[in-house]
């Protein structure tokens, strides 16, 4: 199993880049898991679902499963670590982390003019940093992820599965 983190500030293009990398590599038969860090509180369930109702009633955790997938919502204390989350995906060939700027894992960072002020990642493990990419129509996150910009190719080549 290999791990790569994609870092950058909000709206720098992390999710778009990960989406394109995931689509490309999964077509090649690579089993990919993605773990996203959210720096803010988020609601992992929808109002009206049974699991939401049971959690709202006071359950500290709720799980829903079928023969194809499962979901667990659980209050955590102490906070979960990336290692805890990685352990949920032992069969993955590649785990992509969105965020995790201070992690020791190999990482690439997207730094975009007009969006980012400065790189935010801990330099430990930083493989590539796509810098000063102007937010114009030719360099949108989707265009970068499509491989139309040389800095994207540098970021993409930062991590090899071989």
TrEMBL record:
Coiled coil: none annotated. It comes from Candidatus Lachnoclostridium stercoripullorum. The gene is mobB. PANTHER family: MOLYBDOPTERIN-GUANINE DINUCLEOTIDE BIOSYNTHESIS ADAPTER PROTEIN, MOLYBDOPTERIN-GUANINE DINUCLEOTIDE BIOSYNTHESIS ADAPTER PROTEIN-RELATED. GO terms for molecular function: GTP binding. CDD domains: MobB. GO terms for biological process: Mo-molybdopterin cofactor biosynthetic process. InterPro entries: MGD_biosynthesis_adapter, MobB_dom, P-loop_NTPase. This is Molybdopterin-guanine dinucleotide biosynthesis protein B. Residues 3-119 form the Molybdopterin-guanine dinucleotide biosynthesis protein B (MobB) domain. Pfam families: MobB.
